[in-house]
Amino acid sequence: xxxxxxxxxxxxxxxxxxxxxxxxxxxxxxxxxxxxxxxxxxxxxxxxxxxxxxxxxxxxxxxxxxxxxxxxxxxxxxxxxxxxxxxxxxxxxxxxxxxxxxxxxxxxxxxxxxxxxxxxxxxxxxxxxxxxxxxxxxxxxxxxxxxxxxxxxxxxxxxxxxxxxxxxxxxxxxxxxxxxxxxxxxxxxxxxxxxxxxxxxxxxxxxxxxxxxxxxxxxxxxxxxxxxxxxxxxxxxxxxxxxxxxxxxxxxxxxxxxxxxxxxxxxxxxxxxxxxxxxxxxxxxxxxxxxxxxxxxxxxxxxxxxxxxxxxxxxxxxxxxxxxxxxxxxxxxxxxxxxxxxxxxxxxxxxxxxxxxxxxxxxxxxxxxxxxxxxxxxxxxxxxxxxxxxxxxxxxxxxxxxxxxxxxxxxxxxxxxxxxxxxxxxxxxxxxxxxxxxxxxxxxxxxxxxxxxxxxxxxxxxxxxxxxxxxxxxxxxxxxxxxxxxxxxxxxxxxxxxxxxxxxxxxxxxxxxxxxxxxxxxxxxxxxxxxxxxxxxxxxxxxxxxxxxxxxxxxxxxxxxxxxxxxxxxxxxxxxxxxxxxxxxxxxxxxxxxxxxxxxxxxxxxxxxxxxxxxxxxxxxxxxxxxxxxxxxxxx
Length: 636
Fold this sequence. Notes:
It contains twelve helices and 37 strands. By secondary structure, the chain is an alpha+beta fold.
């Protein structure tokens, strides 16, 4: 029985159906108590008729709700009403790894390994807590709009419903990833999950599973008796080390496989380091162009080669801020016939030169902000606030503020700042966040982003259309009129009066009276928008889910979608002048533009990280915060 939109189970209101599988139907639902979207998997009615199953299901749901890892889809609990049994889970906007592979055909092996890093981190964590998935496959892995990889259905898997994997009716889609011991109806172990992860890695790189046969018998025989084809014989330019990793993960005997995810992960990361080193040393040869004269052709090639080496030398020892300065001065004009475009310029391979610095915490960080070249702060979950005074090389943990989840911070100088949190709380500090003083606010909604036009006039965005305004450095706040109930995720002012804000469901608001009132603009996308940046009063950009970038040249009246090469959500966008800008995704990918945002060229950092925020210091140094205590900075 399919539930209709508007139907309420306990405190969950059905919004729409997301999908249907062997266990039941998954719905998008609204948690009426917490005012957030969840995924509600309502199990098949026959599940309710088995008392033993009911008891086991509730016990496992309670246990799984204790799992807390950024690479696992969180389970919040279960529902039991109207003889409808449901699992309440984190709602993740994105697409499954299965669909991602279908869209791409197959993945570059380096990208596949970066995804594996996070699959192994999540599965390894669950294994350490005593959980076995039993059904790992690309359709049970989701990549969020922000580029975060998450495993679904951990612990509450198909094995709860079926004692025998080999019983009639088992779907081929599941058999393709089954370990030999599961096919023989033996008790699955951690090594069973590792086998399935090995199959998933193979499929990411090859585009098809290793035993991609048409009948159940052939698939089972492949898992039980055959070795997977070497990936290097299926795909060119794949290192032999990857063959060894896959072969070890897919050994027939559990005793010959990786004994745990940590060992599997260590081999993956070792190969990634080797590949990353190779990429930094590799110089792409310039593309040869046809010419009427062989002499002209020779000199043209020579000129291009010299240009490439010159640029490579410059960028290998330069910083992004140096690049910006030179671009502004016109030294590297993109109109110069000898300039090599972004896509063929080897200097851009590691233009970001980002490195992970130790912060002393593994808590998820939600925000980072640098006051000057040396002084910066970051904040996150469970009251985490950290501080640096040496440009991010070392971080000091400020005593924990238990029970608080901080979403964003802003500092006017090294000591005075503002911090906002999940519970609608806003704090000011005058002593470098050693003490926080709570400020009375006209609303109690969750607060999301801080923006200051100058040292006195600022704004805070929040859930349900909230935009707060201050004119005294955050000591008092007033509620503005926004005419929307959507979450407002970011804000930007081109001058004292003209500003724009963006949010969920494609919301774009505009103000012409210093933010006292806001007018919704015509909607041009239904996806969330997280970033907004205007070069002047007419030309601006918004970006967000799925790597989407939109441009306006008439102050927001019309918007044009700009195609990009990424699907992960964009977390930051900035222009250094009217031509040159960059955008960054939550997956750690960079988009660069040298033509006022008409085209964007992709540059991967070589690191697969889950980023949450970006800060550009007054000296144009760039920093990022991320999950698991990650802070990235430019490596000088």
